[in-house]
From TrEMBL:
Pfam families assigned to the protein according to its UniProt record, in alphabetical order: Cys_Met_Meta_PP
Family: Belongs to the trans-sulfuration enzymes family.
UniProt KW keywords: Aminotransferase, Pyridoxal phosphate, Transferase
Membrane-crossing segments per the record: none
Cellular-component GO terms for this entry: cytoplasm
Organism name: Neotamlana sargassicola
Cofactor: pyridoxal 5'-phosphate
GO BP of this protein: methionine biosynthetic process; transsulfuration
Keyword flag Translocase: no
Name of the featured protein: Aminotransferase class I/II-fold pyridoxal phosphate-dependent enzyme
GO molecular function, one term: pyridoxal phosphate binding
Positions of post-translational N6-(pyridoxal phosphate)lysine modification: 207
Length: 392
């Protein structure tokens, strides 16, 4: 048998050192600073000759514990935790990129990430372009001499498209590029991009890592030397995760495996139900045989995740009637909660994305994204069914 503990065990047993009170559950270290014994300790600590917490903008015992857990779950060497997923995305980009660089990203990315690519990075003379998520064979032809990294989300938000991580990593290696993956939809329980060659993995911890819709958080993990640069940038700019959020999130990670198993079991049943519903045009879920990248999803994901995309018949009107008749599920823009959430990406999370970009990645007016929760699956199906029957 291997010496390494299983995922669930590491999630529970990776803990900050016990204090003098011998507590069983790790306490909350709500402190902005830490004290030193004398001038020499203070000097040596700031000179990094001594490893210890100095100030919570740099590190904190609760945040360290959260990072250690995510590193073990992802098979990563090191990490840094942020106040939100977008703080993780932005700080990673800001660290890696210089003026004159180019980023090649998959075409279907989270709306705020698209906003960074189109609105903010260009103002620092950083060029961004997209490869079509369904035409990975074009990736190599889009690489430029100044391309720094390939950016991928898989599964994507909100299209639930799947990208072949092994293939992307082989392309990156061949062209000496970094591969940066947003693994938020999969969670480290379902998919480990580093195993397939990714250099950095980003998560919005706000989603399934918290799993209960309470706090915001983000994390980037991966190669030690890259994380060191991200740490140095973040130490100066201050996007750090709060101790309180780290404490909540670290406790949430203890139950990630059991929660995600159940989310996925519910989601697969609901995806199959939707696929056979007369008021539905199409359904996309990674573990449905009809998903265009089913084989890749099966290869790199343990289960299909909790997000389903589908289109209600009847366009905008059909969609509106569907949303207006939902009773149990929540109309919200978050995802990865115990509560099932239905979202209309075209008017919410992706409202600021240009019409042609939305069309290219399948965000139609009738497209719905469901984040399947942990209510009894029969009750979720009952609610979706009655709302769909009001559509069109
Ligand atoms: C794929 C993906 N990446 C990043 C983010 C940003 O995370 P946060 O809302 O924690 O900033 C989200 C949020 O929905 C997301 O879905």
């Amino acid at each position: 048998m291997s010496d390494k503990n299983h995922f669930e065990t590491e999630a529970i047993r990776t803990q900050t050192e016990t204090s003098q009170f011998s507590e069983h559950s790790v306490p909350l270290y709500l402190t902005s600073g830490f004290v030193f014994d004398d001038a020499e300790e203070m000097r040596a600590s700031f000179a990094e000759e001594k490893q210890r917490d100095l100030y919570s903008r740099y590190s904190n015992p609760n945040v360290n514990e959260f990072i250690d857990k995510v590193c073990k779950m992802e098979g990563a060497e090191s990490g840094f935790a942020f106040a939100s997923g977008m703080a993780a995305v932005f700080s990673t980009f800001a660290t890696l990129l210089n003026a004159g660089d180019h980023v090649l990203s998959c075409s279907s990315v989270f709306g705020a990430t698209h906003g960074l690519f189109t609105k903010y990075l260009p103002k620092w003379n950083i060029e961004c372009s997209y490869f079509n998520i369904n035409e990975v064979e074009t990736v190599e032809s889009l690489i430029q001499p100044n391309t720094k990294f390939i950016y991928a989300e898989t599964p994507t938000n909100p299209g639930v498209d799947v990208l072949d991580l092994e293939l992307l990593s082989a392309i990156c290696k061949k062209h000496n590029l970094l591969l940066v993956v947003d693994n938020c939809f999969a969670t480290p329980y379902l998919q480990n991009p580093i195993k397939y060659g990714a250099d950095l993995v980003i998560h919005s911890a706000t989603k399934l890592m918290d799993g209960q819709g309470r706090v915001l958080g983000g994390v980037t993990v991966g190669k030690k030397e890259l994380i060191r640069e991200i740490y140095l940038f973040s130490r100066l700019t201050g996007p750090a995760m709060s101790a309180f959020n780290a404490w909540v999130l670290s406790k949430s990670l203890e139950t990630l495996a059991v929660r995600v198993e159940k989310h996925c079991e519910n989601a697969l049943k609901i995806a199959a139900f939707l696929e056979n519903h007369p008021k539905v045009n199409w359904v996309k879920y990674p573990f449905l045989k009809s998903h265009p990248k089913y084989d890749i999803a099966k290869k790199q994901m343990r289960l299909g995740g909790n997000i389903i995309a589908f289109e209600v018949k009847g366009g905008i009107d059909g969609g509106r009637k569907f949303f207006d008749n939902i009773k149990l599920c929540s109309l919200s823009a978050n995802l990865g909660d115990t509560r099932t959430i239905v979202t209309h990406p075209a008017s919410t999370t992706h409202a600021k994305v240009e019409a042609e970009v939305k069309a290219a990645v399948g965000i139609t007016d009738g497209a719905v994204r469901i984040s399947v929760g942990l209510e009894h699956v029969d009750d979720i199906i009952k609610d979706l069914d009655q709302a769909l029957n009001h559509a069109e």
